[in-house]
Amino acid sequence: METQKKPHAVFLPFPAAGHANPLMQLAEILHLRGFHITFVYTEHFYRQLVKSGGSNSIPNLAPDFQFVCLPENLPATLPDIGTRCTLTQKNCTEPFKNLLRQLMEKTPPPSCVISDAVMTFAMHAAKEFGLPEVQFWTASACGFLGNHVFEELIQRGICPLKDESYMENGFLDTPLDWVPGMKHMRLRDVNTFVYTTTPNDTMINYSIEQMKNCQRSGAIVINTFHELEKDVLDALATYYPPIYTIGPLANLTDGHLKDNTQNLSIFEVNKECLTWLDSKAPNSVVYVNFGSHASMTMEQTKEFGWGLAKCGFHFLWVVRPNIVNGEKVALDETFLEEIKDRGLVVSWCPQEVVLKHTSLGLFVTHAGWNSLLEAIVGGVPLVCWPIVAEQVTNCRQLCKVWGNGMELDKNVSRDKVAELVKEMMEGESGKQKRRIALEWKRKAEEATSPGGSSSHSLDNLIKHVMLKSE
């Protein structure tokens, strides 16, 4: 395609690996379809990537796949997520407009902006330059619907909570049988941002702003597939512009599986674990990873560790350097001696590859959306221990609707960990969940195959939104 005629997509993710990775996957897919790509980092996230050495994508991938940094001027010690969202919006708005202004003078000029729905300013910037814009929701459709009901929770007097006692007095079990598409929901299954006693809570208000932005958008993209979240997507269609389901993105590259997508990890990746997995029997390993940002207490970490030691199975456990309240974890020497013959503890790993490995029998996870989708792609059943945000919503759907896993009690103990892992690895419930997981894997492959629902949705997104043809 001649350079001056190339469509040019500008991508703006929120500066976190779980947000940036799905946008990168879509950017690579569009690049293969002939798009010129500008992928925008913020400076703090860029520095994290450089420090970790976890991304070989920081240099431009090709002359028509370039990376640009925006200054977000965050403090050296990262603030809480609410302040971080507010500062990013405040400090990045004008730099992003300046970037678009500069790109409009180049060849080819931008033809569309694809921004993370968290980056609420990007939609207004795109419209100011007359560019088609797409809001990319990087979590699940059920998580999207959970955020959609925030305003009604406030109107009904359910949120904010009256006081801290409402966290433990059973109020969180209030049924929300009025939520369309998810009538099995309880208050505790909505995004944990609602667990607040603060009027005008920052994250509640920010999330409501996101939802209103999405309602004004030209299109919404969700990294899911129609067959998985049909009832939820049907409910959302009443309130929002066209929603394009184009996942699992890990599967979707012109109808073919692609294993070499750029992984924007902020941690150094340990690939030696793959050799360790090669030595294990099929379906024999428990993989444990609670994501790139969630924090645990040291006591919770110990209980998980000794539960894994007690269950008797081989396990691969990712323990981030800063998993315990931002502090480096030092696992007990007695524990390490106990598990040396059957457990491997690493600081990070190539999760997509691990979850496709034949030795994997179970995934113990925080129920983050990228992790759940990667487990579906791998056909691996799950034990979920949700921690924050829409992870609780994902977990509820998984247990009540999708059926490919079970939930671990939030009051984690080594006995509960060992008991549930054993049941999932060799019990009747576990065998049933494994069959269901393999069925979802098949449906995901169908969705991302030529003519499948996600492939068709991607074609329509490109044709009717990004290229603005009728």
UniProtKB/TrEMBL annotation:
Annotated PANTHER family: GLUCOSYL/GLUCURONOSYL TRANSFERASES (PTHR11926), GLYCOSYLTRANSFERASE (PTHR11926:SF970)
UniProt record similarity statement: Belongs to the UDP-glycosyltransferase family.
Domain of life (superkingdom): Eukaryota
GO molecular function: quercetin 3-O-glucosyltransferase activity; quercetin 7-O-glucosyltransferase activity
Keywords linked to the UniProt accession: Glycosyltransferase, Transferase
EC number: 2.4.1.-
Protein name (record): Glycosyltransferase
PROSITE patterns tied to this protein: UDPGT
